[in-house]
Amino acid sequence: MRSPNLFRMSLTRLARCAPLLALLFGSALPVRAQRGATDYTGAQALGLALRRTGATERVLMIGAHPDDEDTQLLAALALGRGADVAYLSLTRGDGGQNAIGGEFQEALGLLRTEELLAARRLDGAGQFFTRAYDYGFSKSADEAFRHWPKDSLLGDVVRVIRRFRPDVVVSVFSGTPRDGHGQHQAAGILAKEAFDAAGDPRRFPEQIAAGLKPFTPSKLYQGSWFRLEEATLRIPTGELDPLLGRSYFQVAMASRSRHRSQDQGRALLPGPHFGGVALVQDRSRRPTDAEEGSLLAGIDSTLSLRAAALLPGGSASPVARILSNYDSLIARARAAMNALDPDALVPELVRGQRLLARAEAALPAGDGGAALRFYLEREAADVAQATALAAGLVLDAVASTEQVVPGDTFTLELSLWNGGARPVGVRRLEPVVPAGWTATPLDSGPAPATAAPQTLVTRRFRIGVPADAPPTEPYFLRQPRKGDMYSWPAGDASAGLPFEPPAVRAAATAVLEDVAVPLDREATFRLVSPQDGESRRPIRVVPAASVTLDPGIAILSVSGRHAPLHVTARVTAEARGGVDGMLTLAVPDGWRVQPAAAPIHLTAAGQTESVEFTVTPPAGTRTGSYRLAASVAAGGRRYTRGFRLVDYPHIRPRPLYREAVTLVQAMNVALPRRLRVGYVMGPGDAVPQALQQLGIDVEPLDAGALAHGDLSRFDDIVIGVRAYEVRSDLAASNRRLLDYVRDGGTLIVQYQQYDYFQSAFAPYPMTVARPADRVTDEDASVKILVPTHPALTTPNRISDDDFRGWVQERGLYFPHTWDPTYVPLLDMGDPGEPPLRGALLVAPYGKGTYVYTGLALFRQLPAGVPGAYRLFANLLSLGVR
């Protein structure tokens, strides 16, 4: 068994060696839990691969959201120890905020999933998910389990444990109210219950029937990195790793900084740092074990120890003896790095592959043999990766295009670069494509059978995409959600992974000393920018035509004579030859649409045509929801969807599809006259477009307009959510805004975070609690405190009906105390909690009116909630002068 202190590396010992000796302590994480390619290359990649060889410890961390994970611990275990480590996030973070763009809900889930994968490429861990959709903040586990059927979610966690087989489970949360967020509490509860349930064959027997085996982890810890005083084990993460040139703490902070949508940028501080965990349960203890000295104490750390524990005959069994030789060989391979020659590793690693093959062939039947096979298969992948890196073998696959449509063809060039010092046999170099696709060689003559040192072997193929190929779409978005749970396709092997595997890959088999070394790589498109140089883009299949319809929500006021609605359909040709077809808009019975149809003639990929339809509802249309749907008939097919790419420089792009549908919300909402509103945008703000649906003239205010413009032109000025946090120009111009109010204007401030309150931007004092007051139950009862106030009467009389049908939450960041000049208008609270009165505060200031509201109007308006429109119309009407 290894040294009890898993994380204390002897820097003195490393310093005595040349720099490449640091490679002895490293390993890259193979694809166990899915992630993208590692960010480590060259000597670092080889060093990390060597750290993984021979290591069999496995650790699973469980939390609720992207960015909940303890990246210090992940990096220390995966990069420093070479352990197989993964993070299971219950959700994809769909319900959070977005500091860098307009993606919310499923789009935000895609962005945050990719941010997790970007983080994992640095800290070396893998990634899993459950079906849970992040519906937003909740205050208790009970509330969370009202959204997520507990037994279903527990089954997902158990499935991951049975699949990944961790020796140690680390729960980020305690499962108690001290965790705060109800989803955090739920994650802590599920981690503890799954720790026991995964080994019980009576629990979730359908998983056993599908081929998974019960598995009992040895140890359960609770993360204590944010409460180190409670840790039973402090883990040093600030020691410099010479291989990485950083400490694990620095790697962890770089990893965390990739959660850019969540404002998680961190400094890479040098010097001592510690993580911590608290032991909850330990099944690994043996009578001879010393007191706990490391997170992995008591865990079999090598293949020979695993064999001794699992097989009849223990350490004397034939397989255990073979694997003991293998463990010794790995030690020699590491020692070979003293010569600073990676090629010297190749013979030892090749012999290691032979020993693993002998051990697998000698495995006895029974549960012990099957359990050991799990570790042998993973070790074979690790040593094959290390062999390829030591031999200087690099596989690549470059497609001629990033995007294809069904029926298309494209060129794929495969290359195997032998950058090493010895000749290599080439047994296989070919594409791997889905069933129904074709791969036709374009080279004349047979494929090369040998790659000499420092040469490049290439093969070119024409890849044919079948006419019925489905579009590239995340597996968890192919079917509608069931409430707040994603639907996974039955039997899909991707279930629980971040995404499905890439459709097109390259596979190669190199031969070294008669031992086959498999290599595998995703095929990508090489994009070369004069400004940014080379980047790689995944290949995606898309429909030949993309159809969108805007706006997604249209507001129809039934207060007076119906004004016609105007919606715009956009058709984009994705096929290289363009699209010829007919565009139509389906409307409810009795509604009129002009034009009835529009011909579409696009001659090349990327061309777009927009058609504006005028839709006239019949007189007497009642309040309710109505559906408009656009489609294009072309080439014997009908296209009803469009897609957008969720794409930022720090992530891989992902397509998100949406039906070409406008939901018309007919509601009784009145405005006194055409209003002119200035709007200060917050991050990802969709409120201005919603207000325009009411016929309001909304003008975005940039820094120049705030600092020097004529603000008196506006009836109202609205501040978007979190705008004070992200716009320094707003803070600098706050005095001008207060002057605007004093002179008779109305300023409506939507929810802001702590800096707004601490900086005293409001005209009169108000404070916020920590954590801030909020009402998370979207159906929480609401009491109107001042029924005669103009904000609740003019021009729309607000009643209980206006608070029905809200989504995700009532509101957040309510003031906790305020100056008596403010008038609270609403009283609301979550079930079982005292009511809160800070949701909507209105105060006179000079000749004008100042409004602060923590109501989640920024969620309700884009969702088409009638009461939110009626209330916002009233707030804007306060500015009628």
Helical percentage: 10-25%
DSSP strand tally: 46
* Outline type: globular
Oligomer: single chain
Sequence of strands across the biggest β-sheet? 3-2-1-4-5-9-6
How many H/I helices? 22
Q: Which secondary-structure class do the elements indicate?
A: alpha+beta
- The termini sit apart by 80 Å
Tell me the strand percentage band: 25-35%
The average pLDDT score comes to 92
Largest sheet: 7 strands, mixed
Radius of gyration: 31 Å
Flag low-confidence runs: 1-32
Which terms would index this structure?
about 900 residues, alpha+beta, 7-stranded mixed sheet, about 30% strand
Written overview of the protein:
With 881 residues, this protein is an alpha+beta fold. The protein is built from 22 helices and 46 strands. The chain has a seven-stranded mixed β-sheet, sandwiched between helices. It has a seven-stranded mixed β-sheet with strand order 35-34-36-37-46-45-43, sandwiched between helices. Helix 5 packs across helix 7. The longest helix is centred in the middle third of the chain and has 25 residues. It is globular, with a radius of gyration of 31 Å. The N terminus is likely disordered.
Short note summarizing the structure:
The protein has 881 residues and is α+β, with helices and mostly antiparallel strands. It has 22 helices and 46 strands.
Compile the SSE list and pairings.
Layout lengths: L10 H5 L26 H11 L5 E6 L7 H11 L2 E6 L16 H18 L2 E4 L11 H7 L2 H15 L3 E4 L10 H16 L7 H5 L9 E5 L9 E4 L3 E2 L4 E2 H9 L17 E9 L20 H8 L7 H18 L9 H17 L5 H25 L1 E7 L3 E2 L4 E10 L5 E9 L5 E4 L8 E2 L3 E10 L40 E8 L2 E8 L1 E6 L3 E6 L1 E2 L3 E6 L2 E5 L7 E9 L5 E8 L5 E3 L2 E6 L5 E9 L7 E11 L2 E3 L1 E6 L7 E6 L1 E7 L8 E5 L6 H6 L4 E4 L2 H6 L7 E4 L3 H4 L1 H5 L1 H9 L3 E5 L3 H5 L7 E2 L5 E3 L6 E3 L5 H4 L17 E4 L2 E2 L4 E2 L1 E3 L11 E6 L2 E6 L3 H4 L5 H12 L4
